[in-house]
Specification:
By secondary structure, chain A is mainly α. Chain A has 12 helices and no strands. Chain B folds into 2 domains: 42-68 and 82-87 and 167-281, Rossmann fold (3-Layer(aba) Sandwich); 98-164, no CATH class. In chain B, α2 (103-114) crosses α3 (120-133), α2 (103-114) packs parallel to α4 and α4 packs parallel to α5 (179-194). The longest helix of chain B is centred in the C-terminal third of the chain and has 34 residues, at 247-280. Classes of the chains: A mainly alpha, B alpha/beta.
Chain lengths: 286, 281
């Protein structure tokens, strides 16, 4: 099953980084007399200081240097004010985006995991599907966007389709690789217990492959946001990507920068939620 | 070595139980086991004793049906072993339990296969009983990663019991344990073996452990793995640890050590013989 991961240059290069498994422990410095707010602990003290430094530099550059394109470079204070003012519109856009994102994500993860488990544990299927996966998985999913918009009846189905493609391959490839490389002792134990193929997949292969599956989902989630926002830049009537594109068209750059920042926060929070789910699901890893 | 308590079983009599005949096994073309003939009677406790790399784990996997021999036959009560079966429970050196299931859930999974007619409540109750039998009554809700090595192996024994197998195959189950836990677990195994009577094949490289546990010790030599002697252990049961201080025990240990030394010497001579042949060529 190593064939799946090796032959997919664009996707698998991202996957190979994500699949450094199982990276469950964060080596973060612990302070005895001061504790950072829980939401900030991912970056730790140094990470927060770096971000504060960047914001200060941004404020300094945007307010102290005079150049002709200054309106393109709003200060963080102005951006924050505009972000606050645009929040209802952004929240509504988030709602629209998630209406496309979540069903596609759920479908891609379900199919990617089920098909990955079956292919990874069935050598004949692996041999059959591997050549197609080698060809199809490296195709950058963004390339499908114009065609999907032309081919599918509504923008929602087109965007949903490209999100699906972006999530399916990393989830499938990681799941197939993980289940194909199942440690021998799990297989031995399953055989000793006389588990049926369905029991083996559900009770043994699936939980044992979960670290790989979560790596695939992490990569897939980032791809999903990329696909969705790029698709929305093309032809949406609402959503996060549309917000940014609309105000770029109006040359309202402070609002556009606010939209970019807001999108970053949404992606970050989504990754954090995924990380929490992962930690809960992989509690049994030492 | 006195012949009074060492018996070489060149022609084992026909009997039911595990029968291994003319077994050969190779891995990547290299012979791992050659010419293995072995009988284990029903209810007998046999230890496979040998140095690392002598193929004793391979032989156990073949008995379990996890691997298939290149040549020869293995049967249990006259039926050829062609794959794993609930008739033969296995306790591995590590990793017998699934880490994502609690101890009780691990046992319940085994019970769902050995007693498919019973419901979840029945399985849970009996899982608790099996865990209590190996001294883990308080830990049934724990995940394996939170347990010590000794407790994990107790859990593995409980799981093998839950399978209801008449044969238990144990692959150096206490190899990674400290001496105190090892001694405790050895007594658990003897208790499990006796009530109800089971057939046990137990792999170890520890001479003391083999002589304490077994009715018969099968000594394996290495490169390739083969049986170099079978020794009937003369100590009665229940066996007490004070046998370790007896003269017979000392003589038996010495005899086995000598067998290992002879085996190593033969290997070295064979290797140097091959080397000199190569030089001549």
């Amino acid at each position: 099953m190593a064939a799946f991961g090796q032959s997919t240059p664009s996707v698998s290069s991202a996957l190979s980084v994500a699949a450094q498994l199982p990276a469950t422990k964060n080596a973060r410095p612990k302070s005895t007399n001061f504790s950072w707010p829980k939401v900030l602990t991912i970056q730790g003290k140094e990470g927060i200081l770096f971000i504060v430094g960047i914001v200060l530099l941004w404020q300094f550059v945007s307010t102290s240097i005079h150049f002709s394109g200054k309106y393109l470079f709003p200060s963080p204070v102005l951006t924050t004010k505009i972000l606050w003012a645009s929040l209802p519109e952004l929240l509504l856009g988030t709602g629209y985006s998630f209406l496309i994102l979540l069903p596609s994500l759920a479908l891609a993860i379900s199919l990617g995991v089920v098909w990955g488990l079956v292919v990874g544990t069935t050598p004949a299927l692996s041999r059959m599907f591997s050549p197609f996966a080698r060809f199809a998985s490296p195709v950058p999913p963004t390339i499908y966007i114009p065609y999907a918009i032309a081919l599918l009846p509504t923008f929602r189905t087109a965007a949903g389709f490209v999100v699906f493609i972006g999530v399916f391959w990393p989830v499938f490839l990681n799941t197939a690789n993980g289940s194909g490389a199942l440690p021998q002792h799990y297989r031995d134990n399953a055989r000793i217990l006389g588990l049926t193929k369905a029991e083996y997949l559900r009770r043994v292969v699936y939980p044992a492959t979960l670290p790989y599956i979560f790596s695939g989902i992490s990569v897939g989630l980032v791809f999903a946001f990329i696909m969705l926002t790029v698709a929305e830049l093309f032809g949406a009537s609402n959503g996060l990507g549309r917000f940014v594109q609309l105000y770029a068209d109006y040359a309202d750059y402070p609002r556009m920068v606010a939209g970019i920042l807001y999108t970053g926060v949404v992606v970050w929070i989504s990754m954090e939620v995924l990380e929490r789910i992962k930690k809960r699901a992989l509690f049994w890893l030492k | 070595m006195s012949a009074a308590f060492v018996q070489e079983l060149a022609t084992p009599e026909e009997r039911l139980g595990i029968e291994v005949q003319a077994l050969q096994f190779a891995y990547n073309g290299a012979p791992v086991l050659v010419d293995i003939n072995l009988n284990v009677a029903e209810g007998e406790f046999v230890c496979l004793l040998g140095p690392s790399g002598c193929g004793k784990t391979t032989l156990l996997r073949l008995l379990a049906g996890l691997d298939q021999p290149a040549e020869g036959t293995i049967s249990w009560n006259g039926c050829a072993i062609q794959g794993p079966s609930l008739e033969r429970g296995v306790v591995f050196q590590n990793y017998s339990l699934f880490p994502w299931l609690t101890l009780a859930q691990n046992i319940e999974l085994a019970l769902s296969k050995s007693h498919p007619q019973h419901d979840k409540n029945w399985r849970h109750k009996h899982a608790e009983d099996y865990l209590a039998r190996v001294g883990l009554a308080e830990s049934s809700g724990q995940y394996p990663s939170l347990l010590s090595g000794g407790m994990q192996q107790r859990g593995a024994i409980a799981r093998a019991l839950a399978l209801g197998s008449p044969v238990l195959l144990m692959d150096e189950p206490f190899g990674a344990l400290d001496p105190v836990n090892r001694a405790k677990l050895q007594d658990v195994v003897l208790d499990v073996w006796a009530k109800p009577q089971k057939t046990i094949v137990f792999v170890t490289h520890d001479v003391e452990e083999a002589l304490y546990l077994a009715d018969r010790v099968v000594v394996l030599g290495s490169s390739p793995g083969r049986i170099i002697q079978e020794i009937i252990v003369p100590f009665g049961r229940p066996r007490l640890r004070r046998i370790f201080k007896s003269r017979e025990f000392g003589l038996l240990s010495e005899r086995i050590d000598e067998l290992f030394r002879e085996d190593i010497l033969q290997r070295i001579e064979a290797d140097s013989g091959h080397a000199s042949c190569r030089e001549v060529n």
